[in-house]
Amino acid sequence: MKRSLADHAARFDEKAPEYDSEKSEEYKAAVSLVVDRATPGPDDVVLDLGTGTGAVALALAADAGRVLGRDISEGMLAEAREKAADRGVEGVSFGVGRFREPRVDATDTAGGVDVVTSNFAMHHLSDEEKRAAVDVIAGLAPRQVVLGDVMFFGAPDPDDPFYGPAVDDPATVGTLADIFTDAGFALTAVERVHDQVGVLVGERPGGDRAGEGASP
Ligand SMILES: C[S@@+](CC[C@H](N)C(=O)[O-])C[C@H]1O[C@@H](n2cnc3c(N)ncnc32)[C@H](O)[C@@H]1O
After folding, report:
1. For 124-162, what is each residue's pLDDT tens digit?
2. Under CATH, which number does the domain 5-203 receive?
3. How far is the CA of 9 from the centre of ligand 1 (A)?
4. Ligand 1: which of 33, 51, 151 to mutate, most ligand atoms within 8 Å of CB?
């Protein structure tokens, strides 16, 4: 991570009121793909990490039993809560949590976490931190992880608008694939949105609900 958690949180607190305006087509495509590829059932718990203003969490609420949005920025979370209230979206809650400490407890997830999603957030972590984060995710034993993010299909282009080299740390698709497979997920889809934006789907072989016979 090129900036501290506090720096990232402060940066997004400042951006929060305007965050939803003027998003790129590639960002919108990634949100749509993450939402399309995530397959929560009506009793499932979805954990959306780096939820921001809730683009993915709010879209999945209709299909899931419960959606938990977690973020380090109180400002972004406030926007997400306001959108949920304005739209009358039920079954979704937003709270402070980070990739490596998502703060889900038994009251949130009596039957475990079934699906983990994240969009345009993991690239703030270094590759080592991404690996630690995916290990934490694997420890929650979800059957599916859907990651949309800035990721390199080819050579990085620091002049491209999708990331800022001073604050962001995107990985190559190959590195992300290794991280997910090393953590026990089978990569079932790799979707390229742009040379620097993609969506990965990881599934646990035999992935039943957490604790019901699947090995993480
Ligand atoms: C570019 S926004 C994406 C928000 C949302 N997922 C979306 O698709 O619009 C990145 C978000 O990740 C959050 N974030 C950054 N580092 C984080 C971390 N270590 N743990 C959790 N959230 C983090 C930021 O606060 C910010 O809200």
Report:
1. 999 999 999 999 999 999 999 999 999 999 998 888 888
2. 3.40.50.150
3. 8
4. 51
